[in-house]
Amino acid sequence: MKLIIANPATGQHKVVEIDDDNKLRVFFDKRMASEVEGDAIGDDFKGTVLRITGGNDKQGFPMKQGVLTNQRVRLLFKKGMSCFRERRKGCRKRKSVRGCIV
Questions:
Q1: I need a surface site. Which of 63, 68, 79, 89 has the fewest CB within 10 A?
Q2: pLDDT, mean of residues 28-48
Q3: H or E stretch at 97
Q4: Is the pLDDT of residue 62 over 90?
């Protein structure tokens, strides 16, 4: 799993690739906007608190806040909703998104 860890105060970000399932166990069954201790990932992030802000699955479908499942669902989107850009006025579209649980 690839993690992108960003620091909004400084604008820095770091890409971390983790293959060990024992280290990734901390993220499973957590929702978006929940916080995780950074020392579970490694010694580089000891003492930091990480917040889950989003992601996507292996096929590229984005996570959507408020969809309380860990699977993919098809939702009807309209103007003003996240993950949707209106192409024509008044147009709605059914799209696949992933739930907010990792």
A1: 89
A2: 89
A3: strand 93-98
A4: yes
On the question of pLDDT at 24 being above 90, the answer is no
Closest CA to 52 of 34, 38, 40: 34
pLDDT at 40: 82
As given in the structure block, the two tokens for residue 90 are 């008044």
Cα separations (Å) of 21 from 25, 27, 28, 33, 62? Answer: 6, 10, 10, 22, 22
Strand partners, 101: 31
Tell me the residue type at 93. K
Q: Quote the pLDDT of residue 41.
A: 84
User: DSSP state, 61?
Assistant: P
- Identify the helix (H) or strand (E) that includes residue 51: strand 49-51
Closest listed residue to residue 14, CA positions, set 50, 47, 40? 50
- In angstroms, the CA 89 to CA 91 distance is 6
